[in-house]
Amino acid sequence: VTLVESGGGSVQAGDSLTLSCAASGRPLSSYSMAWFRRPPGKEREVVAQITPSGDTPSYSESVKGRFTISRDNAKSMGYLQMNNLKPEDTAVYYCAAGMDRNGDFYYWGQGTQVTVSS
Fold it and tell me: How many CB atoms lie within 10 A of CB 111?
């Protein structure tokens, strides 16, 4: 599975962005998906996850209520809607798919930069 993110950019605090993740190679419907981010100088952290069917999303506390993860299996697409962005949301955002029993993901995108200025 190849994953390609898009939709990043530079915005002001309070703005919204939607990240997209396009999957190819295998049907996305078989895989859990997630969005991770790596803030400058920090380790990568999970932002949101969603089951293959899309009916059980979960979020980190830092984004809960502001971000929404979704997917369209028919289009092999994943999304991360980000509202009320804050400077601390500045990071490289990664799409991931295919979670093993240890919670690690097999497939990763190359990342897209999101920069939020105050």
Answer: 17
Q: What pLDDT is recorded for position 56?
A: 85
pLDDT per residue over 56-81, tens digit each? 899 999 999 999 999 999 999 999 99
| pLDDT given at position 28 | 85
In order, the DSSP letters of the chain are: -EEEEE--EEEETT--EEEEEEEESS-GGGS-EEEEEE-TTS--EEEEEE-TTS---EE-TTTTTTEEEEEEGGGTEEEEEE-S--GGG-EEEEEEEEE-TTS-EEEE---EEEEEE-
Query: Amino acid letter at 79?
Result: Y
Three-state secondary structure call for residue 44: coil
| Separation CA 13–CA 118 (nearest Å) | 5
Which tokens hold the place of 17? 């962005």
Q: Which residues pair with 43 in a beta bridge?
A: none
Strand residue runs (E) in 25-66: 33-38, 45-50, 58-59
Are the C-beta atoms of 78 and 20 separated by less than 8 Å?
A: yes
